Amino acid sequence: MSFLRVNKYLPRFFLIVFLHFLLVYFLSKHLSGVSILPDKFFISTFLGKEFYITKTFIYLSEFFNLFLIFVLGNYFFADKNPLLPLLIYSFSPWSFYHTAFVSPYIFFLSIVLLFVLGIILLKENKGLSIFVITFSLFLGISTSLFFLFILPLFWFLFYLLVEDKKLRSTVEKFLIFSLILVFSLIVVTYLVNKEAVFSYFKNELSAFGDPGFINMINTYRGESVREGFGFLSKIVENKYILGFEFIVLKLLQSLTPATFFTSQEKMFGFSFSPPIFLGFLIPFVYGLYKSFISRNKYLILGLVLLLPSLMSLNLINIDRLILFFPVVIYLISYGFSSLSDSKGLRFRFLIILSLFILIFQFIFTLYDIRTKEKERFIRYYGKIQEVKIR
């Protein structure tokens, strides 16, 4: 487990952590007076007790995220630049905005990263791996509805992809355990508080509950009846077919680079800052290309992390989509490393161009936060400075 021995880079790690939280402080300072209402843990719905995700809890979760990305960077890029994933995460608006706004998805991201670390440890230390995976599984399904589906599905896809027979046997046992755990939790919570279960599922899985979505289907059917195609309309275009088409559209939109590298989808509904700086687009595209030609099948696992966004009411939920951020970070880091290893003037030019865009956009974003961000916030949310963000 050489990647866990990271003492060599610890001073630089703490420097990056300090700079990251400095950005969080900078954003919070220029949004002073804004109070974000804390979210509740999933399990609170059924226990009748209020367990809130507080600011302190989110800050601790963010530090844990930084450390886990640091450790995973040492695993994936030990021979190149293990600090690269940490740098990308730390200086991307996606991370410091969500921390400043006390987003529960910072904590949910911790669970995803911990689960990934547990999978990696399977070959290194089986005992530690069992503990990490089990802990992340319990933590996930007790704090958010999405982890009832994400972690077991992630585990199932990993089971299908793994080729080592010994490892496959271990994964199979874990898969059965996770399915039993999830099923047991659903049954218990249903028996304890049936109404709360249905209410929570309805609120969180809102993709097909939108009145506008239902009205669109009814309007289509009404027009079809007037034209004499009433029965045919029920077969060709119903809630399920249209819902499937909507999910496919959401999936394609979620994988579009413009979603990540521009402010096309406003973070928290108001911000003009992009989730990830545009300067990272070149290494992202190159990393995606290199992963494709090397046939990295394990990247398919990352698609599971799109589920929370796909199940939301909007076409794109950029706040939920942050769970997919680790996959994007990996591709950017892989692209940067591959570009730096490639010989030729054009590759050096691409690196220099990327760095130039990054520096320019970073400075511009800080200026924009200082001068305009609070005004946008008030314009979007109104004069009420205490808001609930999901």
Strand and helix map with partners:
Layout: H1 10-29, E1 35-36, E2 39-40, H2 44-47, E3 52-53, H3 55-76, H4 84-90, H5 93-100, H6 104-120, H7 126-143, H8 147-161, H9 165-192, H10 194-204, H11 211-226, H12 230-236, H13 239-254, H14 257-261, H15 281-293, H16 307-310, H17 325-341, H18 345-381, E4 386-387
Parallel strand pairs: 1-4
Antiparallel strand pairs: 2-3
The helicity comes to 55-70%
What shape does the CA trace take? globular
Mean pLDDT: 80
Query: How many DSSP helices?
Result: 18
Description:
The chain is mainly α and 390 residues long. The protein has one domain. The protein is 68% helix and 2% strand. It has helices spanning 10-29, 44-47, 55-76, 84-90, 93-100, 104-120, 126-143, 147-161, 165-192, 194-204, 211-226, 230-236, 239-254, 257-261, 281-293, 307-310, 325-341, 345-381; strands at residues 35-36, 39-40, 52-53, 386-387. The strands form two sheets. Strands 1-4 form a two-stranded parallel sheet. Helix 6 packs antiparallel against helix 7, helix 11 packs antiparallel against helix 12 (230-236) and helix 15 (281-293) packs across helix 17 (325-341). It is globular. The mean pLDDT is 80.
